[in-house]
Write a sequence for this structure.
């Protein structure tokens, strides 16, 4: 069993797909224009096919397709690294480590982010110690490649270290690029006035935007705001429970969400629970859900 | 008097001088109110029953009221209902009396109104029945208005509740973005400058993270 998978890593974005498709198309076009060898075109084709399989949640098929090319292709290695980190594939520590390292060394932005997440959590099987600083190094490199999720992860790292003045620029930029983590932390900072002028409305809006990607921490925070009131929000336990139902669906393993849900359910009557269930079932995110 | 006349005189046929329904009713009222004789409720109801038997709707109604109130006779609601039905079948002269018979039949007349009716002559009963009908009409209208208010209030409360319990949406909140393009551009510059500072610190050995990163490659 992998040890290195962390909760933060379990929050995907849709950037992998967008980047993969864009890069694949660009690579193919450039390769054709430059008269690239047939093998480069073939690799891009394989990666594009794997991305399609990944999009359809056929992770094993995607991994099988990438096996032949991942050692020499950063994009392919990055995808494989991500799938191992997120436990979308059966454990194979040797392949996972190789893929993550290959992606990082190939300066693939997506791979760098996932490699950073592995480094941040540490992994005995990989013989990797926990190193936040190392993770920050990988993320900084990905950010310099202008990869928004890297800004989102750096925002998260600075925020958790309470370095709000440093966090704000990363959070603001990744929020502008609709990165779920960036929106979430930017929302928290706006609500609490940390690193930025306190603005309840902006904070709530940022959380709402993050919730559109079914970002469980954002859904939980919205639930807490509706449950407790304040920060410009009225108390509404029914709405709070609806948010908790959505949060629970987004991350069934999260203990904090499960506890909050159970505790609130005990205070609601049958009618309120029914209304909340209907609200949650009817809820449609305005943005497409991120890749799972 | 001949035998034939005697035989005819002994026959049970009603003599031409037998009181009419109207006369029985008038006698009943005279006994009920003590007009020209001592008041006698028992005699009154006997006369009203006779009037009823002869097809007088008012007599049936008064007899029904007396049974209903237990006045001049043991109270008997079943008998009162039977007489009220008879009153309706006979077709009272006034629609108001018909309504009063119907009210008595379905139990909505009430003891107070029954006593009031018994205290009035036929004309008075008609006026009173009209008054009751009007009051009932107003009551009905008032009840309908109150009902509408209650239903309207409940509907407003329900829809307000529905609105309150709805999850906020981006469209409802008018949210499109929380960071303007100018802010985003500035934030990106600041973030990259921050990274550059981290790297510079690492180069001076102040940050082991960047140093580790350097070793990693």
């Amino acid at each position: 069993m992998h040890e290195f998978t962390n909760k933060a890593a379990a929050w995907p974005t849709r950037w992998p797909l967008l980047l993969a498709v864009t890069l694949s198309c660009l690579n193919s076009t450039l390769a054709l224009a430059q008269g690239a060898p047939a093998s480069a075109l073939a690799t891009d084709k394989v990666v594009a096919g794997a991305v399609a399989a990944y999009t359809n949640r056929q992770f094993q098929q995607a991994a099988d397709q990438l096996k032949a090319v991942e050692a020499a292709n950063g994009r392919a290695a990055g995808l494989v690294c991500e799938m191992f980190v997120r436990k979308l594939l059966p454990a194979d520590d040797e392949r996972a480590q190789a893929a993550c390292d290959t992606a990082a060394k190939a300066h693939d932005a997506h791979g760098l982010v996932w490699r950073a997440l592995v480094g941040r959590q540490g992994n005995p099987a990989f013989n990797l110690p926990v190193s936040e600083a190392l993770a920050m190094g990988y993320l900084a490199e990905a950010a310099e490649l202008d990869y928004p999720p890297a800004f989102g992860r750096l925002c998260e790292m600075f925020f958790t270290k309470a370095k709000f003045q440093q966090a704000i620029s990363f959070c603001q930029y990744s929020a502008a690029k609709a990165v779920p983590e960036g929106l979430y932390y930017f929302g928290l900072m706006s609500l609490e006035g940390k690193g930025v002028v306190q603005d309840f409305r902006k904070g709530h809006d940022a959380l709402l935007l993050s919730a559109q990607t079914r970002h469980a921490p954002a859904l939980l925070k919205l639930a807490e705001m509706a449950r407790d009131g304040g920060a410009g929000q009225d108390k509404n336990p029914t709405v709070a429970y609806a948010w908790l139902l959505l949060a629970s669906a987004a991350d069934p393993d999260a203990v904090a969400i499960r506890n909050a849900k159970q505790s609130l359910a005990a205070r609601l009557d049958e009618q309120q629970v029914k209304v909340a269930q209907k609200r949650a079932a009817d809820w449609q995110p305005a943005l497409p859900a991120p890749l799972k | 008097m001949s035998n034939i006349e005697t035989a005819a005189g002994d026959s049970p046929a009603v003599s031409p001088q037998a009181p009419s329904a109207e006369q029985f009713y008038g006698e009943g009222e005279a006994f009920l109110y003590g007009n020209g004789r001592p008041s006698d409720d028992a005699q009154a109801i006997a006369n009203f029953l006779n009037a009823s038997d002869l097809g007088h709707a008012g007599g049936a109604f008064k007899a029904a009221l007396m049974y209903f109130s237990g006045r001049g006779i043991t109270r008997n609601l079943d008998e009162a209902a039977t007489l009220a039905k008879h009153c309706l079948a006979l077709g009272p002269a006034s629609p108001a009396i018909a309504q009063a018979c119907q009210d008595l039949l379905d139990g909505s007349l009430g003891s107070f109104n029954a006593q009031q009716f018994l205290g009035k002559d036929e004309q008075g009963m008609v006026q009173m029945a009209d008054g009751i009908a009007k009051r009932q009409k107003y009551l009905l209208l008032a009840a309908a208005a109150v009902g509408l208010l209650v239903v309207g209030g409940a509907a407003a409360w329900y829809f307000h509740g529905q609105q309150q319990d709805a999850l906020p949406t981006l469209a409802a909140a008018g949210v499109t973005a929380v960071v303007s393009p100018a802010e985003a551009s500035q934030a990106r510059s600041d973030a990259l400058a921050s990274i550059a500072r981290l790297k510079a610190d690492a180069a001076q050995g102040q940050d082991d993270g960047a140093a580790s990163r350097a070793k990693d490659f």
